[in-house]
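Hi F.,

I've been meaning to write this up properly since the lab meeting, where we talked about keeping a consistent format for the predictions we share between groups. The idea is simple: the sequence comes first, exactly as it goes in, then the structure tokens exactly as they come out, then a line or two of notes. No screenshots and no reformatting. I'm using this chain as the first example so we have something concrete to point to.
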Amino acid sequence: MSRDWFGCTAHEISDALRSGAVTAREVAQSCLDRIDAVDGRVQAYVEVWRDEALRQADAADARIQAGTAGPLTGVPVSLKDVLCTQTGATTCCSRILEGYRSPFDATVVRRLQEAGAVFLGKVNMDEFAMGSTTENSARQVTRNPWDLERVPGGSSGGSAASVAADETAISIGSDTGGSIRQPAAFCGCVGMKPTYGRVSRYGLVAFASSLDQIGPLAKDVRDCATTLNVICGRDPHDSTSADVPVPDFTEALTGDVGDLRIGLPRECFTEDLSDVVRGPVIQAARTLEDRGATLVDVDLPLLRYAVATYYIICTAEASANLARFDGVRYGYRDPDAKNVQDMYVLSKSRGFGPEVQRRIVLGTYVLSSGYYDAYYLKAQRVRRLIRDDYARAFASCDAILMPVTPSPAYRLGEMLDDPLQMYLADIYTIGVNLAGLPAISVPCGKSSAGLPIGMQLVGKAFDEATILRAAHAYELHAGIALGRPALAG
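Output, unedited:
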């Protein structure tokens, strides 16, 4: 084999496949060999579908030979374990769904299949997508490829780690409060959260239904744009998917930002932001300014209420969504149950991990009689005000540039005993979900310890094209070369 295909971008792989320089089977085998070589240390995958991946690769080669290749034909993809698939198990990395096999594929999975993607397997996540470190998985602890003693972020930590460790070209994750963008920032890859409703949630196991959104993690912006072309669009199976035309997002990647106004929120550059992140993020803004963009100051005054608002709404929705896992119809049923009450209590208390239990209890509390108006209803009103904040900011700019996280990746175990501190670290990402807006995380530098740092571009609803254009222009002109993690070799 002439090169390490596992380290290539999706568009590099596609070009090579179409030119005949490599076969899809060779690409898939290269990635599978890579997984064998490094995943024992990274632990990104919870299932590797070797036989299925090679079968799909052979089918991709046949499509290429027949001239019927799709936009992702032969491209290796990993899937977060929150997406329903007929192949393998769908467990949300929870004991309560151990061994569960879905009778159907999620819409996103089906669309990727139709585009010719080769699925390598399922990747790790925080249980039911609740967490920011991937340490809340019932399966294993995923490690950051840049420093194996640090977290990859979460809840899509397995997705980000699989891309950063060159174990796949693209991964599909989900983002409820930053769960694509934060691990992308921690692991030095590109992560995109589309507008709420842009991508069907059919087959995504729900955490918080009004906040969840599926999106790609990839090695560069072009791969994110190509993946969005495939997965976006109205789906009759999902009543919340929007009937909005899907443009060819790759056409937005012109490298030109001369007509864009980029907003910098004053509230995002306070003393709460570490200097190690502030410098590269500000420099990213200057790079876009050097390319012709206009920088303007904007205000998001209600950002300080976003964490409280988010953790009321998301826990309330989680308590309702997770009520279905009762040990009756499917999933874990505790063998020690002596009666129906035991079955419910033991199955849930032993099937769910501590973080999931915490959020179910919090959500049940804020929805309970006497507290609904004081907490949940008030949070929904503040949510609307936060959305209005963004609308006012966008009156004077086309995109908003801000940090993704207050600091680079932290050490394993550092946040486990302090969940409140972990929640507060979501301050820059959760407002986007509350407002239903698109946002992308792009690497913008490294810390002195060699840890990746990400910057975030937020766009108007259904205007993914603008932030992809700005992100791609930054990527082209910033000269940021993170290199590869030390485990690469």
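Notes:
Residues 372-394 form the longest helix (23 residues).
The mean pLDDT is 96.

If this format works for you, I'll send the rest the same way.

G.
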